[in-house]
């Protein structure tokens, strides 16, 4: 049976990705950093057997190496790595002082360095997998420069650049792609007033905000059907850049 690991697997998008992977027949490792309760709830919601949860911060390479050893001992290989862990905070783009050094460092450490560190930690196991793939959960912000803050947009652009570089470097054994949603009705979006959400819908040609399931279904399609694609970015944005 194929195996998939999802970083940030206890969050809104991450947990939905885990559920879709389990339904598709994968043994899923739900990675989490701090919320064990949600990770356990996600684990218990998964169809079929053989799933696990594992606590490790993507900013701690030693912890990632230990997680890789756990996967090696229990599963022997990894077929899908989903780099879903990410962080941001709302700061107006013209508020340069509001975007502190601490937040800039945190965003890049988790969103960019953490994703790279995961690929580095699991490269050997991915090479043992079948048609193995790394899916980096990016954002439309990488392309538009419009998002929660300047550093977040830059971090997702860096992630897409990393996707292209690693797509070339790890071929032919490992494919690497970015999955790039627009607004998603996850935990972060739900912190905004309904009037703002309605405005975002009006700016989207398909006239709605994506659900976590839209992202998860796209990921399954990429993993299972787009088997001759690597180093590219798949949009799941409802046509937002067209407006």
Key features of this structure:
243 residues; alpha/beta; Rossmann fold; 7-stranded parallel beta sheet; 7 strands
What does this 3D model show about the protein?
- This protein is of the alpha/beta class and 243 residues long.
- It has one domain (3-236): NAD(P)-binding Rossmann-like Domain (Rossmann fold, 3-Layer(aba) Sandwich), CATH 3.40.50.720.
- The chain contains eight helices and seven strands; from the N terminus they run E-H-E-H-E-H-E-H-E-H-H-E-H-H-E.
- The chain has helices spanning 12-23, 36-44, 61-74, 101-127, 141-144, 150-169, 194-202, 212-224, and strands at residues 3-6, 27-32, 52-55, 80-83, 132-137, 174-181, 232-236.
- It has a seven-stranded parallel beta sheet with strand order 3-2-1-4-5-6-7, with helices on both faces.
- Helix 2 links the parallel strand 2 and strand 3.
- Helix 3 (61-74) runs parallel beside helix 4 and helix 4 runs parallel beside helix 6.
- It is globular and about 50 Å long.
- It starts with a strand and ends in a 7-residue tail after the last strand.
- The mean pLDDT is 95.
Output the CATH homologous superfamily.
Answer: NAD(P)-binding Rossmann-like Domain
Distance between the termini: 43 Å
Residue fraction in strands: 15-25%
Give the number of domains: 1
Rg from Cα: 17 Å
Task: Write the SSE topology.
Elements: E1 3-6, H1 12-23, E2 27-32, H2 36-44, E3 52-55, H3 61-74, E4 80-83, H4 101-127, E5 132-137, H5 141-144, H6 150-169, E6 174-181, H7 194-202, H8 212-224, E7 232-236
Parallel strand pairs: 1-2, 1-4, 2-3, 4-5, 5-6, 6-7
């Amino acid at each position: 049976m194929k195996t998939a690991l999802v970083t940030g697997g206890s969050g809104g998008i991450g947990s939905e990705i885990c559920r879709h992977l389990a339904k598709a027949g994968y043994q899923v490792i739900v990675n989490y950093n701090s919320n064990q309760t949600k990770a356990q709830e996600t684990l218990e919601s998964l169809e079929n057997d053989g799933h696990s949860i594992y606590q490790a911060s993507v900013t701690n390479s030693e912890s990632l190496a230990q997680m890789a050893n756990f996967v090696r001992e229990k599963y022997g290989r990894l077929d899908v790595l989903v780099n879903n862990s990410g962080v941001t905070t709302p700061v107006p783009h013209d508020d340069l002082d509001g975007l502190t050094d601490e937040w800039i460092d945190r965003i890049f450490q988790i969103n960019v360095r953490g994703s790279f560190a995961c690929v580095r930690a699991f490269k050997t196991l991915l090479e043992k997998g079948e048609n193995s793939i790394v899916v980096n959960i990016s954002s439309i912000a990488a392309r538009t420069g419009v998002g929660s803050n300047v550093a977040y947009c830059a971090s997702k652009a860096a992630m897409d650049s990393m996707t292209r570089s690693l797509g070339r470097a790890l071929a032919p054994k490992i494919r690497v792609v970015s999955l790039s949603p627009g607004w998603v009705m996850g935990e972060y979006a739900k912190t905004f007033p309904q009037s703002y959400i309605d405005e975002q819908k009006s700016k989207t040609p398909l006239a709605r905000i994506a659900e976590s399931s839209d992202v998860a279904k796209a990921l399954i399609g990429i993993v299972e059907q787009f088997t001759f694609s690597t180093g590219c970015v798949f949009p799941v944005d409802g046509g937002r850049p067209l407006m």
